[in-house]
Amino acid sequence: MTLSTDRKPKRAVHLALVIALGAALTACSSKEQPQEAPTPEVGVITLQPESAALTTELAGRLTSYMVSDVRPQVGGIIQKRLFEEGSMVKKGQLLYQIDPAPFQAAHDQAVANLKRAEATLKSVRAKADRYAELVNINAVSKQDAEDAAAARDQAAAEVAAAKAAVQTARINLEYTRVTAPISGRIGRSTFTPGALVTAGQAQALATIQTLDPIYVDVTQSGAELMALREAFLSGNIKGGNAQTAKVRIILPSGKAYAHEGTLKFSEVSVDPSSGSAVIRAAVPNPDGLLLPGMYVKAQLTQGIASDAILAPQQAISRNERGEAVAMLVNAEGKVEPRIVSAARAVGNKWLITDGLKAGETLIVDGFLKIRPGAPVKTVAASLNGNAAR
After folding, report:
1. pLDDT tens for residues 163-176?
2. How many beta carbons lie within 10 A of that of residue 14, not counting itself?
3. pLDDT tens-digit profile of 61-107?
């Protein structure tokens, strides 16, 4: 009886240890089993052929179509300034009035001298005519008749000189009215009423600039100019005629200017110091939005690619060798990296010339969640929003 009583507690303890050990082993085995990660979700688009306009952008600077410095052609005191600084003026519009009094007096004197010369001519002409008749009947000597004719010719020359003096005085009198030589916007006046000016002075009274149309001067290297000219001659650049091509202006804000310009290949000049060529484009500027000195871009359409493959720029990255790489989802639903050829930017997309084809699924969102060869879940991407990286 004593032996059986001692064995029962030992069996109970042994059974408890077995149960505890089994529970521990079960817990360890459950911890060692890895939980399966969820399949990452990526935004994708299906590539389709598109029609794309291939353009070339050239940096340019705006310059005035015409510039004229207003200078006096006679000296005197400025009596009036007859324009507002910064306003538009018309050709022939009166800008300054120089004191005309001394020039009016000179004109009046020239007119008086002319009348005196004409009166003298009238007298000696009559005398020469009479002597010409009398010499035929030997009433006067031939010498007297010749002297009378010479006096008549001299008086006629004096009349001509007097007429020229009157014309000069009239011109100088008109020059006291300083008018606009061209139409355009006039700048600030460097002289005020009461100032003394002289004929042909170095400092201009004001400067007028014609801004409609306005020029865009585009600078290009010799190689770029040759390529551009060849593209034009081959017919790839659209618009224009034998010496011009249509061009669109991009403002500093990035917006397209409302009016189309004309690039003039015939007005090309080369800077001998740098070897770069300057091509000039004329652009309408009816509203005066474009101002001299502004930097803009001139955009030319070189051609239309009808079946182009365009990839959003956010979908193309670069590897360590600088190669363009796109991430696609293959037929097995896994990530497939592919090296592509991105020829040029077309808007906010890359023109892909090799490596992608229509119908393939291109990843554009969710790049931080994926790795090559891993399965992914695809959803249609919205290119208007911010892409998840």
Report:
1. 999 999 999 999 99
2. 10
3. 999 999 999 999 999 999 999 999 989 999 999 999 999 999 999 99
Residues 6+ apart with CB under 8 A from 55: 299, 300, 301, 302, 346
Domains and CATH numbers, the chain: 43-52+305-380 (2.40.420.20), 56-65+209-304 (2.40.30.170), 68-92+181-208 (2.40.50.100), 100-175 (1.10.287.470)
What are the angstrom distances between the C-alpha of 204 and each of 81, 97, 191, 201? 14, 15, 9, 7
Q: In this structure, are residues 389 and 368 in contact, taking their beta carbons and an 8 Å threshold? A: yes
Partners of 76 in the β-ladder:
197
- Which residue's structure tokens are 């200078």? 71
Instruction: Return the structure tokens found at 8.
Output: 């029962």
Q: And the tokens for 299?
A: 């955009």
DSSP reduced 3-state for 369: helix
Place of tokens 């600088």: 322
Q: Answer whether 77's CB lies under 8 Å from 194's CB.
A: yes
For 385, which DSSP code?
A: S
Q: Is 229 helix (H, G, I), strand (E, B) or coil?
A: helix
> Sign of dihedral through CA atoms 174, 177, 183, 188?
positive
Judge if the upstream peptide bond of residue 102 is cis by omega within 30 degrees of 0: no
Weakest mean pLDDT among 173-182, 230-239, 263-272: 230-239
Q: Cis peptide before 286, with omega less than 30 degrees from 0?
A: no
| 3-state secondary structure at position 80 | strand
DSSP single-letter state for residue 334: B
